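Researcher: I'm preparing a figure for a lab meeting and need a structural model of a single chain. I don't have an experimental structure, so a prediction will have to do for now. The sequence is pasted below. Please return the structure as C-alpha cells so I can convert it later.
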Amino acid sequence: MYKSLIRPLLFQFDPEKIHYFTFSALKNFGGLARLFLPKPIADKRLEREVFGLKFKNPVGLAAGFDKDAKMFKELSGLGFGFIEIGTLTPKAQDGNPKKRLFRLPEDSAIINRMGFNNGGVDAAVERLKSNKNVLIGGNIGKNKVTPNEQAVQDYLICFDKLYPVVDYFVVNVSSPNTPNLRALQEKEPLTKLLGELMQKNAEMPSAKPILLKIAPDLTDDQLLDIIDIVSETKIAGVIATNTTLSRDALVSANKTETGGLSGKPLTKRSTEVIRFLSEKSNSAFPIIGVGGIHSAKDALEKLDAGATLVQLYTGFIYEGPQLIHDINSELLKRAGRLPRR
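Model: Understood. Here is the structure written out cell by cell.
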C-alpha cells in the first residue's frame, strides 16, 4: 500500500515539507495508520546484545530523520529496534539555505545539504526525558560557526547534556554539509577528539558506548587509520557509512545538486567499507551498517560483510515500514546463523 498509493502521493510535494507533514500525520493519526501497516515483529530471536546494550531487533533508524527527538516513540512503534536522533549541536541552527533536499527517483536516492539543522541539544534533552523504553542513540556534531580548532568543546557539551537521556553516542565528523567538518576525520584531530570524549566518558557514573560515523569516501589507507584510532582510543565501534560525494552512474535530473548522496547508489560502497573494516581489524569492534539498504537482501549482505546491526534512512523513505518487517522476517529464517558480539 505504501509503495503503490502513499509514496506516489507524498512524492508529489517538496521533500522537506512532506517530511514535516509526515511527522505531523504520524503524531496525530499514527494509531489509525498502523492499521494499514505491517505489524512489527516481536521475537526474542531477533534480540542482539552489542556493546553492552540489548537491542530488541537489529534494524534501527539512522540519524537525520528524527533530528530533534520529536518522533522517536512513534517511529519505534513502526518496528525499529533502536532510534538514532540528531545530529545535534550545542546551539540551535537553521542549517543551509533551502532548497536543500532533493529526490532522485530514477536512482532510488536522495541528495541533501541540510547542514545540521536542529533546535539545539537542550530542546532534544527535554523531549527525551519522557522516554521509557526506546533505545536511543545520540548523534552529535559541532555548530557551523565553531572553528575546527574549538570543535572538541562542542562535542563535549553535547555529550555532557545528552548523557542522562541516551544509550549510546555517535560522533559525526563525516557529514559533507558543514564546511571543513570532514577534516576532523584525519588521524591526528580525530584521535584527539575521541580521546577527549573517552576521558569525559570515564568520569561519568558509568561509561556509555561511543561510536564513530565515517564517510564512504575514505581511501583504504584512511580506513586503516580508522582501525588504528578505534584501537588506540578504545571507542565502542563504527557506523559505516554516511552519505557520499560521489555521483557515479546517476541518471536523475537532480544529480548535479551539491550535498551528500544516499540510497541505492551507496549500497555497494558502504558494504565494501564494512567488509574492509571487519576483515582488516579481524572483527575487533562492532560495526553498524548503513547506506543503500532498500531490501532484506541488502541488509543481509551488510551483516554477512561484518555488520552487527543495520540502520535505514533513504530505503525507509522509498520502501516504507514494510522494509523493517521484511528484514526482520528474513533474519528470523536464519536466526541461528547470525553473529553476536
